[in-house]
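Sequence, please.
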């Protein structure tokens, strides 16, 4: 079974997080998570849930625990997604700073040449944001901002979020059975 590491930071966009976890609910992938204190607050504000209440995540690590499995290259995570990814987390990841377990785990993914997807969430971007995205990209990360697809004509916010969740699953190498695609 494939193992996925999910990191939740304090950026807005928790609707996409819930949608992603629903989209992969029936997929054979083990999901472990790390949530920053700001991520916990925003998740509570936007979705009125705590990380532990989210579906699919079987284990949560403390964001300050550098002895946790995700801090080591010997861990067997096939991929990591930071969803949503704050600009502060992007900056730390781009600069190779291990301020907390999220940043360290992302650094591990890059050094081990494993799939790291950053769902950067901010608008508009300033020059520093763009430079940090380019630096993270050059280090091997995939920059995948939460931008839904409207050509599938979503009828509500949940369907809109699902269009992004499907793209995110594709980027992580996760096959979702009922995913709609262009031309279907």
């Amino acid at each position: 079974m494939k193992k996925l590491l999910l990191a939740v930071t304090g950026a807005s966009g928790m609707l996409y997080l819930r949608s992603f976890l629903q989209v992969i609910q029936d997929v054979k992938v083990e999901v472990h998570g790390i949530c920053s204190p700001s991520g916990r607050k925003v998740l509570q504000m936007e979705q009125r849930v705590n990380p532990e209440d989210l579906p699919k995540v079987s284990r949560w690590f403390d964001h300050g625990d550098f002895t946790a499995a995700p801090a080591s290259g010997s861990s067997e995570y096939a991929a990591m997604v930071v969803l949503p990814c704050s600009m502060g987390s992007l900056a730390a990841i781009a600069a190779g700073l291990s301020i907390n377990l999220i940043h360290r785990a992302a650094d591990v993914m890059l050094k081990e040449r494993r799939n790291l997807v950053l769902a950067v969430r901010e608008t508009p971007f300033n020059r520093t944001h763009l430079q940090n995205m380019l630096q993270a990209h050059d280090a091997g990360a995939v920059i995948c901002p939460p931008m839904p697809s409207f050509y599938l004509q979503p009828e509500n916010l949940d369907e809109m979020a699902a269009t992004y969740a499907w793209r995110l699953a594709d980027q992580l190498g996760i096959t979702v059975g009922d995913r709609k695609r262009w031309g279907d």
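The beta strands are 2-8, 29-35, 57-62, 79-85, 115-120, 142-143.
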